[in-house]
């Protein structure tokens, strides 16, 4: 249990209007959570302070070798006016899986959840209520030693900042064009793909730029070994419906284990749907789509009815 010291702002900011377009990650609330780590002392000085800039040495290790991690989750205002998080214990667990990969010290899961709850509670009036909006929560850890040597840092900052946001993807549920990236990869097995860390995103920008330049809105990432199997789309896990089954790429070390992914699998199974976690090649996907095109092509008379399946009325 953290003993969190709270310093409230004396100059609250103006909140966005109820129906104002929020965008994603552009507006920040009045407060933030911050806690230090020092080797030998552990995590210490948990506090909530007014949202503000932080000051670091230009030699701080995070700027040079990318030793950092982040998480992302949301707070929702329920119809009952209460505030809800969605499976925050999963974010706490994933934080430590990421930390292990990046040689960042673990944070006790209950401390992570407590920190998130505490800062959301203070800024609960910032949670937007319009349909599809929520308070985006961004916990993150950065390496802060003033040192240019390559080694894990001895000091870190853990922070939680909050941003009232609309949907991450502004197109909502409308179909979008997807660019299949066959030159660059996002992550490789043995790399950091399963970890939520900035480096994976830095590696992904070029694919996104290529896609946007060609008027596609998302990148489909392939595996880093054979560039044949589907991994993720943009920064999302992906599901297909093939022959009545729900199919998603199996976790292989280079795919981020999304909490949405895990929840989707559990929900689909609860509805009696068959869910397969396995390798899915681009070829298989195009073939499955060919099935749809061929079948509907025959049904609508656009393709030759070579099996004699169409019956005239
Ligand atoms: C965060 C993230 C996801 C989604 O994870 P959720 O827990 O479902 O929000 C998917 N892919 C990547 C690369 C991510 O960074």
Give structural attributes.
313 residues; alpha+beta; 8-stranded mixed beta sheet; 3-stranded mixed beta sheet; globular; binds pyridoxal-5'-phosphate
Explain this structure to me?
The protein is α+β, with helices and mostly antiparallel strands and 313 residues long. It has six helices and 14 strands. A hairpin with a 3-residue loop joins strand 2 and strand 3. Helix 2 crosses helix 3. The longest helix is centred in the last third of the chain and has 18 residues. 28% of the residues are buried. Pyridoxal-5'-phosphate (PLP) binds next to helix 5.
- Beta-strand segment tally: 14
Task: Please identify the structural class as seen in this structure.
Answer: alpha+beta
Name the ligand types.
pyridoxal-5'-phosphate
The run of helices and strands is EEEHEEEHHEEEHEEEEHEH
What's the total helix number?
6
Shape: globular
What fraction of residues sit in β-strands? 15-25%
Determine the N-to-C terminus distance. Answer: 73 Å
The unreliable regions are: none
Instruction: Provide the residue-averaged pLDDT.
Output: 94
Helix content: 10-25%
What is the radius of gyration?
23 Å
State the major sheet. Answer: 8 strands, mixed
How do the helices and strands line up, and which of them pair or pack?
Layout: E1 5-6, E2 31-38, E3 42-50, H1 62-65, E4 68-70, E5 73-77, E6 83-85, H2 88-101, H3 109-122, E7 134-143, E8 155-165, E9 178-181, H4 198-213, E10 218-222, E11 230-233, E12 240-242, E13 245-249, H5 259-270, E14 275-278, H6 282-299
Helix pairs in contact: 2-3
The structure holds pyridoxal-5'-phosphate (PLP).
